[in-house]
Amino acid sequence: MKLIPLPAFQDNYLWVLHDGHRALVVDPGDAQPVVDFLSRTGLQLEAILVTHHHPDHIGGLVPLRDATGAAVFGPAREAIPGPLQRLSQGDSATVLGLRFQVIDVPGHTAGHIAYFTDDDDGGPLLFCGDTLFSGGCGRLFEGTPAQMLASLDALAALPDATRVCCAHEYTLSNLRFARAVEPGNEALAAYQRHCEDLRARGEPTLPALLGEEKRINPFLRSREPAVVRSAQAFNGTTGDDVAVFAAIRQWKNEFR
Ligand code: ZN
Ligand code: FE
Question: Residue 114: its pLDDT value, please?
């Protein structure tokens, strides 16, 4: 399968996966980039996968479904315009012959889901919407730090080779913050240089690799001693891993 991030709006990616004939798209916040891509390539849109209800993820859903007849899959507990197959933890969806497992990842929104498959010949693949970003994580609009930490723990348990398809190109600003949290992390400094080179060439920094994220993403590292110390320096927390995670998330919200 071929995996392609279609840019949309300021910094969204609409992820397309295709086999040369049929395609799926994830979180079409805008229909036009997808319609243009389909007509340019002659691909047939088989399915639309939705991770959560925010407008920049579903804005193009109805026109795209009307134009293509694609099947729609989305979170069971969010307001998504139907008809759609409503999915939650433990469900799966078979699209393009690949079986996608559904993982509940509440935090950014209450009913947010992610899609994981290990069936593609390119390696394991995760569509995680606005839950995990490269070097960061989504803002907590509808969930608690405990929920988001549990959601990220569930994603971190996937194989290290997993290609992480995040919905936004937030990597460079995330990494500036990550450096403030872990100034001594050499892998992080090297990854930042790599991503700056990619962006200077106009290339996406995504998909990220999960194994790399575990080495550089402070939101996957809230139990690391260096991250705990930085959280303590930020707000004096003496709490558990959830308190450390909450401190890092709060710090990121305020970081300029
Ligand atoms: Zn969102
Ligand atoms: Fe978004």
Answer: 99
Give the pLDDT confidence score for residue 5 in this predicted structure.
98
pLDDT at position 169 is 98
Collect the ranges in the chain with pLDDT lower than 70.
none
Active site residue 54: yes
Residue 184 to residue 54: CA distance in whole angstroms? 36
Query: Which residue segments constitute the domains of the chain, with CATH numbers given?
Result: 2-254 (3.60.15.10)
Distance 125 CA to ligand 2 centre (A): 19
* Interaxial angle between packed helices 241-254 and 171-181, expressed in degrees from 0 to 180 and rounded to the nearest 10: 120
CA-only gyration radius of the chain, Å: 18
Centre of ligand 2 to C-alpha 50, Å, is 11
Our answer to whether residue 112 is catalytic in this structure is no
Count, in order, helices (H) and strands (E) of the chain: 9, 14
